[in-house]
Every structure is written in C-alpha cells, then in structure tokens.
Write a structure and sequence with these properties.
Endonuclease Iii, domain 2; 12 helices; 205 residues; 60% helix
Length: 205
C-alpha cells in the first residue's frame, strides 16, 4: 500500500512579482503572506477521486473520508476501486451518489473506456469538456483537476465559493458579480492559478 504521492504547485518569485505589478492590492497581500504552498496530486486518477470526495464538503471532512478510503482499499487505483461495490465505497462516509460516481469512473478507466492520460494533450477548455461528460463531474471539479493535479497556470474558478470569498475579502466587496470576477480573472491572466492559491489562503484567514 503506497501513500498518495503529492508535490507543491510550482511557481516562483517572478510569478508573484508579475501578479503584484498587474494588481497592487493582491501584491500587498502576497508580500504580507509570503510564499503559499499548494499541495497537489500529480496522478490524474487519484486527483479525480479526491476531487469527487471533496465536492461540497469541508477540508476536514475530506481528510477523514480520504484516510478511510486509503485504509479500506489500499492504493487508489482504478483497478482497485472498480473491484469494490458502491456500497463498500459509500461505507467510508460518502453519499451514495458520490460512491456510485467513483465506482463507475473507476470501472471506465480500468477498462480503458476513459483515458485520463489523454487530458495532458488538451487545452484547459477541452479538459473541462472531456471531464464533465463523466457522471458526477461538473465544471468546478474539472477546474480543480486543472489546478490540483495538472498544474495548469491560468485557472480561477467562479464555481469555487472560497475563491469568491477570497476576492471579496481582498478587495473589500460586499457582493461579487460575475462581471467583476471576470475582470479580476483577466487581470491575473496568464497566472490565474497562482492568484487562486493566494485567494484560497485569504478566504480562510
């Protein structure tokens, strides 16, 4: 039983400096916070299962369920999870809907009917289009894959409540419209993912 291999999202001082130059308010916050490390899971399958587990629940709850899944099933591989029923997967503390989704996706990948590795060849938009064809995967989950597994550099997710909350706190806003969000997203481009890493951190402060 091997542990899940993780690493930090790679970015450097140049990226921080660039974002600070296009958005001084963000720049001040980044300088105050220092380098924020974001743990990612490079293995696409493991990251996808982790993202499904994480839908609409707290970080603490995710950790608890994730530990149970690893204790129960050992390595998180499509072959391994496809062997177990949705009921067995659900017993780790998931909703039945998520358990069925995890089982079905594991089965597809194990049988070669969905080739995750091909995602590396696609643009961000195409990755999202491909992933949301899977049952139980929406745009938010696909965007989390782009950042938290594939290390794509320019992802800021409107569907992520914490990102929106981080923006509102950073800029002192009571509300945030989709248009305002888009303006900030475009300002951060092409380094939106690094901005996201800081916005997440700000939202939890």
């Amino acid at each position: 039983m091997g542990p899940v291999i993780t690493k930090f999202f790679e970015y450097g001082q140049d990226d921080i400096d660039y974002l600070g130059s296009v958005d001084p308010v963000l720049g001040v916050a980044m300088a105050r916070m220092g380098k924020v490390e974001r743990v990612i899971i490079p293995d696409l399958f493991t990251a996808l299962i982790y993202a499904i587990v994480g839908q609409l629940i707290s970080v603490k709850a995710v950790r608890t369920i994730w530990t149970r899944i690893q204790d129960r099933f050992g390595e998180i591989t499509p072959q391994q999870l496809a062997l177990h029923t949705a009921d067995e997967i659900q017993s780790c503390g998931l909703t039945m809907k998520k358990a069925v989704c995890i089982h079905d996706i594991s089965d597809l990948v194990a049988h070669g009917d969905f080739k995750l590795e091909e995602l590396h060849l696609l643009s961000d938009k195409e990755v999202i289009q491909r992933l949301i064809k899977l049952k139980g995967i929406g745009k938010w989950t696909a965007e989390m894959m782009l950042i938290n597994s594939m290390e794509r550099p320019d992802v800021v997710s409107w569907g992520d409540i914490a990102i929106r909350r981080g923006m509102m706190k950073l800029y002192g806003l009571d509300t945030l419209t989709k248009d305002q969000f888009e303006q900030y997203r475009l300002k951060y481009s092409p380094l939106g993912s690094v901005a996201s890493i800081y916005l997440w951190e700000i939202s939890f402060q």
